[in-house]
Amino acid sequence: MPKPKPESTPEQQNLTVGVISDTHGLMRPEALAALDGSDLILHGGDIGKPAVLDALREVAPVEAIRGNVDTGDWAQVVPWRRNLELAGMSVHLLHNIAELEPRDVESLDAVVFGHSHKPRNETLGGVLYFNPGSAGPRRFKLPVTVGKLYLRRGHLAGEIVALPV
Known about the structure:
By secondary structure, this protein is α/β, with parallel strands linked by helices. It contains four helices and ten strands; from the N terminus they run αβαβαβββαβββββ. It has helices spanning 10-13, 29-35, 50-57, 102-105; strands at 14-20, 40-43, 62-64, 81-86, 89-94, 110-112, 120-124, 127-131, 145-152, 155-162. The strands form two sheets. Strands 3-2-1-9-10 form a five-stranded mixed sheet. A five-stranded mixed sheet has the order 4-5-6-8-7, with no helix packed on it. Helix 3 links the parallel strand 2 (40-43) and strand 3. The longest helix has 8 residues, at 50-57. 37% of the residues are buried. Keywords: Metal-binding. It comes from Hydrocarboniclastica marina. Residues 16-148 form the Calcineurin-like phosphoesterase domain.
């Protein structure tokens, strides 16, 4: 059953959210170009160094969480998880989906995560599970990717964007 959405103003009903994860300190120009035009950027952890967040903030406001490699003093102010309300949609941001409890999902529209470096854009039980993959150093033969979430008048859709690297 669809979750009821709170009322919002017309300008809040349409939102393009860039999603990036597992940069591991590498901020690719191709990733910045792919995220250009985003109203907001989410970073799903394993940032690597604060300069990554600084570069992303040049494109759009950033909401980030830390991952298992984010251990420096700079990362102590970055939370492990975030609950966000975006265009009337409830989004949970965490690094490792294995840490997600079933009760955490009950009132969510989307779970955004990273860690595996494997892109995922799948809806299960009315909840979008979205992993943008990795925009950092290539791991094995996995693609280098970012993602976009499109929030349009109570509807949510994800897109994985392969980077030309």
